[in-house]
Write a structure and sequence with these properties.
With 303 residues, the chain is α+β, with helices and mostly antiparallel strands. It has helices spanning 8-12, 58-64, 84-90, 109-112, 115-125, 140-154, 164-170, 209-213, 216-228, 249-255, 273-281; strands at 19-23, 28-34, 41-45, 71-75, 93-104, 128-132, 176-183, 186-196, 199-207, 234-236, 260-270. The mean pLDDT is 92.
């Protein structure tokens, strides 16, 4: 049975965005969503990454969607099978979107993580206790409280501003681990990790104001890497926030834990040329390379 990002309940957690659409050959999931102001639909990969079991058969699945949908977009898994050239054959819109920062867990952490980063983690752990939850769904309220801090701090909107219902489904996902950081018993940080085979994905991290003051993220990330040392091969720290692959503070933080960098690609394909052009003509899209153009101004699906 599939788990993590490939489990059907992960796609179902986006029910407020659209309807889960299974790709039977490649065994991946898309979200079929209505195009606002029209009777048409398009599809996007699940946020933040599209995964499937057989990348070689993805082209056939996408071809079968022709005319059923206006377009399809997705952001690839950094551990995808195949090459950029193969992706380009399926998706005419295909480009390097972001870099993901990966920790190779086959290497000793004491040798791969800088002394400065380790010291910050050790200092944080003098005050903070990190635990893995056996029943993540029991901490839904605490997680939402923490994530609300993140939303307010970074003015998060759109698909990343997940609803309570979405988080309720997510925290029951097979293959999900929730780690809590406590300061004198109070939860000041939490991180959701999604396991996929030999790879762990740092899915979401949320820290309270007190947690920021006490470097709770360092305590969490150090203990999480230690926890998976003997069970996983790689840990994906993720990428920078937003639509640009900018060298910001979050990227600098993730680099501190990384031993290698892997690209992810934004992929798009028009499936119904006539309707696509019709929808684009209704908007002022001149000079933009946004895809799909008729959704210009919306949050780009993926990360």
């Amino acid at each position: 049975m599939a788990e993590g990002y490939l489990h059907p309940s992960y796609a179902d957690s986006f029910s407020e965005v659209g309807t889960a659409l299974f790709l039977p050959r490649s065994k991946g999931w898309l979200i079929k969503r209505p195009v606002p102001g029209s009777g048409y639909f398009d599809a996007m990969g699940c946020y933040p990454l599209f995964l499937c079991e057989n990348w070689n058969l993805l082209q056939e699945d996408i071809h079968d969607l022709n005319h059923e949908l206006v377009s399809v977009t997705l952001v690839t898994d950094p551990f995808m099978q195949g090459s950029f050239e193969q992706l380009s054959e399926t998706f005419p819109v295909c480009y390097h979107y972001k870099d993901h920062y990966i920790t190779d867990l086959s290497l000793p952490l004491e040798q791969t993580i800088s002394r400065k980063t380790r010291k910050l983690a050790e200092r944080a752990l003098r005050e903070i206790v990190v635990e893995r939850c056996h029943e993540p769904a029991q901490f839904l309220d605490e997680w939402i409280d923490l994530y609300t801090v993140l939303i307010n701090r970074h003015n998060i909107t759109g698909i990343r501003a997940f609803s309570r219902n979405s988080f309720s489904q997510l925290l029951s996902l097979p293959g999900l681990d929730l780690f809590l950081a406590r300061l004198e018993g109070e939860i000041v940080g939490a991180e959701i990790v999604i396991r996929q085979g030999s790879i762990g994905y740092g899915h979401l991290l949320a820290i309270s104001s007190t947690g920021y003051e006490h470097n709770a993220s360092y305590a969490l990330d150090w203990n999480i890497l230690k926890y998976y040392l003997n069970t996983l091969r790689f840990f994906d720290q993720g990428s920078g926030a937003g639509l640009e692959n900018a060298e910001n503070g979050l990227v600098q933080y993730k680099k501190r834990w990384a031993t290698l960098v892997k690209p992810v690609y934004f992929c798009g394909r028009v499936l119904n040329e006539r309707v696509y052009q019709e929808l684009c003509d209704e908007k002022n899209t001149a000079g933009s390379n946004y895809f799909p153009l008729y959704r210009l101004g919306e949050f780009n699906p993926g990360g």
